[in-house]
Write a structure and sequence with these properties.
Layout (H helix, E strand, L loop, with lengths): L4 E8 L2 E8 L2 E5 L1 E6 L9 H7 L4 E3 L1 H6 L3 H6 L3 H5 L5 E3 L3 H6 L4 E4 L2 E5 L6 E4 L1 H11 L3 E3 L10 H21 L6 E6 L5 H14 L4 E3 L8 H14 L6 E3 L5 H8 L5 E4 L1 H6 L3 E3 L12 E3 L19 H5 L2 H9 L3 H27 L3 H11 L11
Parallel strand pairs: 4-5, 4-14, 5-6, 10-11, 11-12, 12-13, 13-14
Antiparallel strand pairs: 1-2, 2-3, 7-8, 8-9, 15-16
Helix pairs in contact: 6-7, 7-8, 8-9, 10-14, 13-14, 14-15
Length: 383
């Protein structure tokens, strides 16, 4: 019996409300997954993640294969036991991290040779090895090895796409575990024809789900959304879609409007470490990207919470003045409290969108979201 199934419960335009069933429990979609790069969501415990309503956590294959090692994790019972998280886990294949290494990596048709950013040691990653590492880690959802190319390098994108397709076939052939859902990764930069080609090629291989890679790597928002429009037309309706590494509030809303089910991003914990809070209704005090900078002196005596409408633990117990004090004093608690708030914002946004889709009110929700962010700059016509 297949341990994975995707039930499409409701649609509103192209927005989808579904449930992806996994061996470690169901994922209500749309869903935002906190990123636990080193098998740990920075400054947040698994219990706190559960209290926030998180249902899926992402871990990083590249980092874990280097430290502490995938075989060690396997010997200790796999990622779920190792990190104390009972819910579903997703691991990437390391393709994006290898893309980011620049001169430290060399790609050929059979795989990637690279030097560790930790100690300079040389390693070799092939499609088969990427699958074997992820089987050792034991995540519920795993990724094929792909090559993420510069979206502006049209010539190389074609080469990388052909290589990604070959690697996808090799990953399927290498898979031995039936309790892991191996997703294909759609590439092709921002070229509509290549994106369509990638969708059609991967769909023929029959993956249980599809990731959308190679976005949020330098292209404009409009180019990213146009690419999602293309992908939505050519992926099967009854399988989950995962937009890799994208997670601003705006991108979650516009991704859902284009048929995306799963999101992940380091944004909420990364900006927390820099003293910033995410806001759904930015207001005048927010920076241009809709964040509240708690380092600013204006918050020094402010008794209000970060967001008076927010129900997270941070906003229910602490003032802006206190959090600013923690930030300025470089207290670790500042990272924790801001991470809790920021994760709550994105997890709860996904929950609100699920409810809106179920009630066929997503377009109304979308308009209200953009109105709260000082007006829509996109065409929000009914779809």
């Amino acid at each position: 019996m297949d341990p994975f199934s995707f039930d499409l419960l409701a649609t509103d335009g192209r927005a989808r409300r579904g449930v992806f069933n996994t061996p470690h429990g169901p994922l209500d979609t749309p869903v935002f997954a906190p990123v636990g790069t080193q098998a740990s969501v920075k400054a947040v415990t698994p219990k706190e993640l559960e209290e926030l309503g998180a249902s899926l956590v992402l871990a990083n294959t590249y980092h874990l294969m280097l430290r502490p090692g995938d075989e060690l994790i396997a010997n200790l019972g796999g990622l779920h036991t190792f990190m104390g998280w009972d819910g579903p886990i997703l691991t990437d294949s390391g393709g994006f991290q290898l893309f980011s290494l620049g001169d430290l990596r060399r790609v050929d048709n059979d795989g990637v040779t690279f030097r560790s950013h930790i100690d300079g040691s040389e390693h070799r990653l092939t499609p088969g090895k990427a699958v074997a590492i992820q089987e050792n880690l034991g995540a519920d959802i795993i990724m094929v090895l792909d090559e993420c190319a510069d979206p502006n390098d049209q010539a190389y994108i074609t080469t990388a796409l052909d290589r990604t397709h070959r690697w996808a076939e090799q990953c399927l052939a290498a898979q031995t575990r039936t309790d892991q859902a191996l997703f294909g990764i759609v590439q092709g930069g921002i070229n509509p024809e290549l994106r369509q080609k990638s969708c059609e090629y991967l769909v023929k291989l029959g993956f249980p789900g599809y990731a959308i890679g190679g976005l949020s790597v330098g292209e404009t928002k409009e180019e990213m959304y146009a690419t999602l429009d293309i992908v939505d037309l050519h992926l099967p309706q009854y399988k989950p879609r995962y937009l890799m590494g994208v997670g601003t509030p705006e991108d979650l809303v516009e991704g859902v409007a284009r048929g995306v089910d799963i999101f992940d991003c380091v944004l909420p914990t990364r900006v927390a470490r820099h003293g910033a809070a995410l806001l759904i209704q930015p207001g005048r005090e927010a920076t241009r990207n809709g964040q509240l900078n708690l380092r600013n002196a204006i918050h020094a005596g402010d008794p209000r919470p970060i967001d008076q409408e927010c129900t997270c633990y941070t906003c229910s117990h602490f003032s802006r003045a206190y959090i600013r004090h923690l930030v300025k004093a470089n207290e670790i608690l500042a990272h924790q409290l801001l991470s809790i708030h920021n994760l709550h914002v994105l997890i709860d946004l996904a929950r609100q969108m699920r409810e809106a889709i179920a009630n066929r009110e997503f377009q109304t929700f979308r308009r209200a979201f953009w109105a709260a962010r000082n007006g829509a700059h996109l065409d929000l016509a009914e779809e």
